Amino acid sequence: MLEVSGVRTGYEGVEVVHGINLSVNEGETVCVLGANGAGKSTMLRAIMRQLPLWSGNVQFLGQSLSAAKAFMPAHCGMGYVPEGRGMLASLTVRENLEMGAYPSRAQASFSGNLERVLTLFPALVPRLAHAAGDLSGGQAQMLAIGRALMGAPRLLLLDEPSLGLAPQIVSQVYAVLGRLKAAGQAILLVEQAVGKALALSDRAYVLDRGRVVLSGDCEEVRNDKLLRDAYLGL
Ligand SMILES: Nc1ncnc2c1ncn2[C@@H]1O[C@H](COP(=O)(O)OP(=O)(O)OP(=O)(O)O)[C@@H](O)[C@H]1O
Ligand SMILES: [Mg+2]
C-alpha cells in the first residue's frame, strides 16, 4: 500500500536521507530502527509531505504523493503520530480527538471512531474535558495515537511511541498496537525500542546515517550479527 522509492531529503541544502526504498503491504506491521540521528523522523516527515522530496517518489494506494500538499496524506488515509506526540496542550482531550477527524473520509464515521478510540484507551474517558497538557506522558501518547485513529487511517505511522515512557507504560502502548494489528491495521513504526518493535512487527528496516543498511523479516534482522553489535545494542 505504501511504496517509498529513492527518496532523498534534508534540511537547508544538507541531505540527511540518501535515497531510501521501503514498502508496507496491506495488513503489515513494518518497523524502521536506527540510532539517534539516523534519519528516521526525517524519512517519516518526507512520507507525510512535511518535507520536500529532493528526489524519489512516495506512492500510497496506487496514487503518487510526490507533488501532494501536506494535508493530502491524511485525506488519502495515512494517520501520523509524530515524534513528541504533537498535542495541542491548551485544547481539551476531546478537542484534540476531534481535530484528528478532519479528513473528509473520517467525518461520516465520527461517533463510531470515537467510541473505538475510547474503548482502546479507557483512561482517556474521565479526562475528555481536561486540557491535553495536564495528561501524563503515557496518556498523552495514547491521545496522540487516538487522534491519528480518529482519521480512520488505512496506514498508521508512528514515530517513537515509546519515547520517554516508563517500561510498564511502553508495554501498555504496545499491547494496544498489537490489538490494532490483530484487527488488520497496517502500521509503519519508527523506534529505538528495538526489542518491542521487532516483537510486534512482520518486517524491519535498519537505517544508518540516512541509508537502509539492512532489511528483512524481523527474525532475520534480530539475528544479524553486524546489526546486533553495531546498531541495536542487543
Ligand atoms: N529541523 C532540522 N533542521 C536541521 N537538521 C535537522 C532537523 N531535524 C533533524 N535534523 C538532522 O537530520 C539528521 C537526522 O535526524 P532525524 O531527527 O531524522 O533522526 P532520527 O533517526 O529521527 O533520530 P532520533 O532517534 O533521535 O529521533 C540529524 O543529523 C539531525 O541533526
Ligand atoms: Mg526521530
Structure characterization notes:
A hairpin with a 2-residue loop joins strand 9 and strand 10 (211-217). The mean pLDDT is 93. This protein folds into 2 domains: 2-77 and 155-232, Rossmann fold (3-Layer(aba) Sandwich); 89-153, no CATH class. The protein is built from 10 helices and 10 strands. It has helices spanning 40-47, 72-76, 93-100, 104-107, 110-120, 137-149, 167-182, 194-200, 218-222, 225-232, and strands spanning 2-11, 14-24, 29-33, 55-60, 63-64, 78-81, 155-159, 186-191, 203-208, 211-217. The protein is an alpha/beta fold. Strands 6-7-8-3-9-10 form a 6-stranded mixed sheet, with helices on both faces. The structure holds adenosine-5'-triphosphate (ATP) and magnesium ion. The site of adenosine-5'-triphosphate (ATP) has 12 residues, from helix 1.
